[in-house]
Design goal:
It is a single chain. By secondary structure, this protein is α/β, with parallel strands linked by helices. The chain has three domains: 1-26, no CATH class; 36-140, no CATH class; 164-418, no CATH class. It has helices spanning 39-49, 59-96, 101-118, 126-140, 178-186, 189-192, 208-216, 231-234, 236-242, 286-292, 304-322, 340-350, 367-383, and strands at 171-175, 196-199, 222-226, 253-256, 272-273, 295-296, 392-394, 399-401. The protein has a six-stranded mixed sheet, with helices on both faces. Helix 1 packs across helix 2 and helix 2 (59-96) runs antiparallel to helix 3.
């Protein structure tokens, strides 16, 4: 087993007390004592989800990465055993009764198919993973780049400047889970893409209501919905389009870029099994409701680097496809930086999490421009839009991008490796 500190490869008999005989460093795991992974296997999984230290990541991403590796190892071993036993039995049968091979060969292939489909399909138990994670931290410390949410500050937030609400972003990402928001914020997705990032449940709490009010005032806003493959996630875009607290009646363009049942194929062995009755409607087709009655799938199955890349791709393709023309000269639209005072207040309100002082911002539009933009957005929504990808659909009040998170959307840089 290889030590992740000094790369020395030692035998089991040399690892007294789970220590490397070369550098004396402790091993967290010992497969010879029924641990599911070696230290090197876990370290390589961490390197993968962190893109070799370039991307912040969550513990949930490591969990699914280890699930991939555990399943592959178990399944491969089972298939090898079937082949070995089948081949040996075939030789014995062929020697004693050659005609019996006509039955033996199909039986072996049938057993191989059954083994491949059913062996190793159980997810790595969450409890076992938590124990593994705790032991890793005790021996090797907290890995670089893992996302840990900061506790809320006890001191009261600084009051925003009176005119801060007159500003807004032109794009927003709304998520179904706070952990997805954490992933985007930790990797500075909001700064680099000039967008607000919120969860539908009110996170980040300190900035939520202020930012939502700002978004609702902007008729040029484009909303991108990122979510798990769950009933709540797949209904989120419909909720945002039809809730008076969000964007109902505002003519704002809403694009669902999250996971839906049609994306589940490459993740068949990472699905969470369910037993419930999910009704159609509210943004769900009958086929989707049927699938979601039996399964669910977390966005965390996709490696963080690919989530960031594919969301960026989706947002920029849709923005280029339907970017509204520049505002008329008589309107009071102002694109530019916030004043220093407003920028400081905005950063205080958002806790440096959502509001970017260098963001391109727009003042509140005149009533005539609001109506003009509303009609333009309604016409675009009725047309369905192709999002620049030729693979989107429209359900009337929101659009669905079915291409950006498909398994072959980004194979040029190895993106398909994230799927399956």
């Amino acid at each position: 087993m290889i030590c992740i500190r000094c790369q020395h490869d030692s035998k089991y008999s040399e690892r007294t007390g789970k220590k490397c005989p070369h550098c004396g460093g402790r091993f967290a795991f010992e497969p010879r004592e029924n641990d599911p992974f070696t230290d090197m296997a876990v370290q390589r999984a961490i390197d993968t989800v962190s893109a070799n230290g370039q991307v912040k990541w969550g513990v949930e991403h490591l969990y699914y990465e280890l699930c991939r590796r555990k399943k592959s190892s178990t399944k491969g071993a089972a298939v090898f055993v079937v082949l070995f036993v089948g081949f040996g039995a075939g030789i014995a049968i062929g020697t004693a009764a050659p005609l019996a091979l006509l039955l033996h060969v199909p039986a072996v292939f049938g057993l191989l198919w059954y083994t491949y489909q059913n062996v190793g399909n159980e997810l790595f138990a969450r409890g076992a993973f938590e124990q593994l994670w705790d032991r890793w931290g005790q021996v090797h410390g907290k890995p670089k780049g893992v996302i840990a949410r900061r506790p809320p500050e006890a001191k009261p937030a600084r009051a925003p400047e009176p005119d801060l609400g007159d500003y807004s972003f032109d794009r927003a990402v709304i998520c179904d889970r706070a952990r997805t928001v954490d992933l985007l914020l930790a990797n500075n997705f909001h700064f680099e893409n000039n967008c607000a990032v919120l969860s539908v449940g009110g996170y980040p709490q300190q900035a939520f209501e202020t930012v939502r009010r700002m978004l609702r005032r902007n008729p040029r806003l484009e909303v991108f919905v990122l979510h798990d493959n769950t009933p709540e996630g797949c209904r989120l875009a419909h909720l945002l389009a039809n809730s008076p607290e969000w964007f109902k009646g505002l003519g704002i363009r809403i694009v669902d870029v999250g996971l839906r049942p049609l994306h589940a194929g490459p993740f068949e062995r990472l699905l969470l099994r369910q037993n419930r009755e999910v009704p159609a409607g509210g943004g769900l087709s009958a086929a989707e409701a049927s699938w979601l009655s039996k399964h669910s799938l977390e966005l965390a199955v996709i490696r963080p680097e690919q989530v960031l890349k594919r969301l960026f791709r989706a947002m920029n393709q849709f923005t280029r496809a339907v970017r509204a023309p520049a505002a008329p000269r008589e309107s009071r639209v102002a694109q530019g930086r916030l004043s220093p005072g407003a920028a400081a207040a905005g950063a205080a309100v958002a806790g440096a999490a959502v509001l970017a002082p260098t963001a391109a911002l727009a003042r509140q539009r005149e009533a005539e421009e609001l109506e003009r933009q509303r009609k333009k957005n309604e016409a675009a929504a009725q047309g369905g839009g192709d999002g620049g990808s030729g693979a989107s659909s429209s359900s009337g009040d929101f659009e669905v991008d079915i291409d950006s998170f498909s398994s072959d959307a980004d194979t040029s840089d190895g993106g398909a490796d994230s799927f399956g």
